[in-house]
Amino acid sequence: MKIAVLREQADGEKRVSATPETVRKLISLGADVAVEAGSGFAASFADQGYAEAGAQVADRAATLAGAGIVLGVQGPDPASLAGAAPGAWVVASLNPFGARDRVEGYAAAGLEALAMDLMPRITRAQSMDILSSQSNLSGYKAVLDAAAEYGRAFPMMMTAAGTVSAARVFVMGVGVAGLQAIATARRLGAQVSATDVRSATREQIQSLGAKPIFVDSVAGIEGEGTGGYAGETSPEYQAAQAELVSGHIAKQDIVITTALIPGRPAPRLITDGQVATMRPGSVIVDLAVEQGGNVEGAVAGEVVERHGVRIVGHRNVPSRLAADASALYARNLFNFLSAFWDKEQGRPVLDAEIGDAIRLTQGGKIVNPRLL
Ligand code: NAD
């Protein structure tokens, strides 16, 4: 089985889907690995490292020729995959609800597209979960991005010239990214509070030494929510949340929003009027900006200023930590392929629980029930 590692084509994408470490491991499973020249360059992995790990480093056509599995970070353009074996797997973060045309392209090309971003949140798939590995780094980077825009310090400092007070940081949405944002802001010495619609996060917030800010008058989502994810809340809950947040936000220096609802636009959590209540010089980082944004006025790919408040909307935050993001992403892909590797057939064979969840196309058709 030949595995092809492609150089990412999307603007600003610095990550790579395999590292020399995972190439070596894939080869030890019995695979042949080809890496498109320059694939790891932006993530600090040189071609030489891949060659030393045993990969063939080649141009795109030679990399793809006869490959049965094609690895990517973002979904490659179906038109650019000519030469791969018939029915080859395309294993990447395929954004199936946002990039339907591309999914149709994989079907038309007879490829089997496997969306790693639809990996079910079950215990045995944790090591294959690209959303978690990338969100964790995003949460960390969001705090550093906020600190870089903020004209003050995070920790309290008592100096001979006087005292600098600790920054107040509020994290909205306490999933994987939010938890890491809380932990990172705490490590930098900030006073941290956080909120979520899922009641199960209250204890997690407390265990990281932050203060939970919760709507108690109306029920949100009791416990974990389906598959660990949030759903949409009632209009009553949204009104109570808006009121609670309004009072709290005006006293914050930094707000980090991470709230997402799978398959839906991100919930709007902060209005322009609420931004106006914050002190000039405050910073908001909207990690959901590419899914529609939690913050009114946030612009994807830009840092904008509204009412003296900087609203940070970087795209593709994991790519801003390309070396670590690639290392973890590549291990997720290796863990996936190796968990299903069938030694006799010399290729991975999926089971129904995971296969049916992530398979988008097969035999020339879209087959995933969530896309039908
Ligand atoms: P996510 O990226 O889908 O959403 C981020 C957070 O935003 C979630 O905590 C969500 O509840 C919250 N949110 C949604 N709407 C909101 C609103 N209106 N106001 C405030 N917050 C709102 O979430 P995620 O990071 O993917 O994690 C979701 C859960 O799944 C977590 O509990 C995580 O621990 C769990 N998880 C489980 C596994 C596993 O078992 N394999 C793997 C990863 C994550």
TrEMBL record:
Chain segments annotated as coiled-coil in the UniProt record: none
Per UniProt, residues of the Alanine dehydrogenase/pyridine nucleotide transhydrogenase NAD(H)-binding domain are: 147-313
Per the UniProt entry, the Enzyme Commission number(s) are 7.1.1.1
**Reactions mediated catalytically:** NAD(+) + NADPH + H(+)(in) = NADH + NADP(+) + H(+)(out)
Keyword Cell cycle listed? The answer is no
Q: Which SUPFAM superfamilies does the protein's record reference?
A: Formate/glycerate dehydrogenase catalytic domain-like, NAD(P)-binding Rossmann-fold domains
* Superkingdom assignment: Bacteria
Q: Which InterPro entries match?
A: Ala_DH/PNT_CS2, AlaDH/PNT_N, AlaDH/PNT_NAD(H)-bd, NAD(P)-bd_dom_sf
Q: Which GO terms describe its molecular function?
A: NADP binding; oxidoreductase activity; proton-translocating NAD(P)+ transhydrogenase activity
Upper lineage is: Bacteria, Pseudomonadati, Pseudomonadota, Alphaproteobacteria, Sphingomonadales
Tell me the Gene3D superfamilies matching this sequence: NAD(P)-binding Rossmann-like Domain (3.40.50.720)
- The protein in question is named proton-translocating NAD(P)(+) transhydrogenase
Would you identify the family this protein belongs to, as annotated?
Belongs to the AlaDH/PNT family.
Domain named Alanine dehydrogenase/pyridine nucleotide transhydrogenase N-terminal: residues: 4-138
Q: Which PROSITE patterns match?
A: ALADH_PNT_2
Q: Which GO terms describe its cellular component?
A: plasma membrane
Catalytic class of the enzyme: translocase
Q: Which GO terms describe its biological process?
A: NADPH regeneration
- Function, please? The transhydrogenation between NADH and NADP is coupled to respiration and ATP hydrolysis and functions as a proton pump across the membrane.
Going by the UniProt record, its keywords in alphabetical order are: NAD, NADP, Nucleotide-binding, Oxidoreductase, Translocase
